[in-house]
């Protein structure tokens, strides 16, 4: 998606340690017009899959998933990173490791909202090492629901996550795949 790639090049900041900061438009301050174009593109890609629910993980994926859900006319379910009083009882849980935060945590979804009859599209902002995405895939499998695919805004193609998830038979469609990035030389897309 050229619009997204142009925005990453213009406003993204490459930091040491393979960190790409896109917080000025994607995952802290949000450019809603850009998200609308991203949502339309996910609808174009997955529109014939019979999606009944969009699943993401808190927090950065929620805004993207909500805007995309408008084009599918389906609800968004987000996996919480902490057990709360509102989610008690019967839940699906998976442990994931966060590349960005450098720690592991459990993601939790109430069984009330993820059912075997659901056709689930996962939406997330980044795919790097694949742990969060595999955790979401596991939640869908635990529910006995049908996973139609994963829509990723930015994939770090130089890290193993995309290949790892695709090797498990998951359809992954990324709007911008970064081949390499360096604070001095910038970003190279596939």
Automatic annotation (TrEMBL):
Q: What reaction(s) does this enzyme catalyze?
A: XMP + diphosphate = xanthine + 5-phospho-alpha-D-ribose 1-diphosphate
Q: Which residues bind xanthine?
A: 20, 27, 156
Q: Keywords assigned by UniProt?
A: Cytoplasm, Glycosyltransferase, Purine salvage, Transferase
- What is any one of the record's Gene Ontology cellular component terms? cytoplasm
Binding-site residues, 5-phospho-alpha-D-ribose 1-diphosphate:
128-132
Which example biological process does GO assign this protein?
A: purine ribonucleoside salvage
Q: What is its main location?
A: cytoplasm
Task: Please give the pathway this protein is involved in.
Answer: Purine metabolism; XMP biosynthesis via salvage pathway; XMP from xanthine: step 1/1
Residue ranges constituting the Phosphoribosyltransferase domain according to the UniProt record: 52-157
InterPro entries in the cross-refs: PRTase-like, PRTase_dom, Pur/Pyrimidine_PRTase, Xanthine_PRibTrfase
Give its E.C. classification number.
2.4.2.22
What the entry lists under SUPFAM superfamilies is as follows: PRTase-like
- Tell me the compartments it is located in: Cytoplasm
From the Swiss-Prot or TrEMBL record, what is one GO molecular function term?
xanthine phosphoribosyltransferase activity
Could you tell me which NCBIfam families the record lists for this protein? PRK09219.1 (NF006671), XPRTase (TIGR01744)
Summarize the subunit comment: Homodimer.
Biological role stated in the UniProt entry: Converts the preformed base xanthine, a product of nucleic acid breakdown, to xanthosine 5'-monophosphate (XMP), so it can be reused for RNA or DNA synthesis.
Say which family it is in. Answer: Belongs to the purine/pyrimidine phosphoribosyltransferase family. Xpt subfamily.
Protein name, as recorded = Xanthine phosphoribosyltransferase
List the source organism.
Answer: Papillibacter cinnamivorans DSM 12816
- Gene name, Swiss-Prot/TrEMBL: xpt
């Amino acid at each position: 998606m050229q619009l997204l790639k142009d925005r990453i090049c213009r406003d993204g900041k490459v930091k040491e340690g393979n960190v790409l900061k896109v917080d000025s438009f994607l995952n802290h301050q949000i450019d809603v017009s850009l998200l609308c174009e991203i949502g339309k593109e996910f609808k174009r890609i997955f529109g014939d899959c019979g999606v009944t629910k969009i699943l993401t993980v808190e927090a950065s994926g929620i805004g993207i998933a909500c805007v995309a859900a408008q084009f599918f006319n389906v609800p968004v379910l987000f996996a919480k990173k902490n057990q709360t009083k509102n989610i008690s009882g019967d839940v699906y849980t998976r442990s994931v490791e966060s590349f960005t935060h450098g720690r592991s945590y459990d993601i939790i979804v109430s069984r009330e909202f993820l059912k075997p009859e659901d056709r689930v599209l996962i939406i997330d902002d980044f795919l790097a090492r694949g742990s969060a995405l595999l955790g979401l895939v596991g939640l869908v499998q635990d529910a006995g629901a049908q996973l139609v695919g994963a829509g990723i805004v930015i994939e770090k193609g130089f890290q193993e996550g995309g290949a790892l998830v695709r090797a498990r038979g998951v359809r992954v469609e990324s709007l911008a795949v970064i081949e390499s990035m360096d604070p001095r030389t910038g970003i190279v897309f596939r």
